[in-house]
Specification:
By secondary structure, this protein is an all-alpha fold. It has two helices and no strands. It starts with a helix and ends in a 6-residue tail after the last helix.
Length: 53
């Protein structure tokens, strides 16, 4: 029973990771990185969820 539960947890974990990667790739495709350094720096912080600025 424990092994079955563990497999289900791992499967769901992979599904969530794949979905998060899909969302991240989709967001980057919709909003490409700017070429100008200042907006690019802000873009990188937003995309990395690093809001310590």
């Amino acid at each position: 029973m424990n092994e079955i539960l563990q497999r289900k947890i791992e499967s769901r974990k992979r599904t969530v990771e794949n979905y998060e990667k899909y969302l991240d790739d989709d967001l980057r495709a919709r909003y490409p990185r700017p070429k100008d350094p200042r907006p690019a720096e802000i873009y990188d912080k937003i995309m990395s969820n690093d809001f310590d600025y």
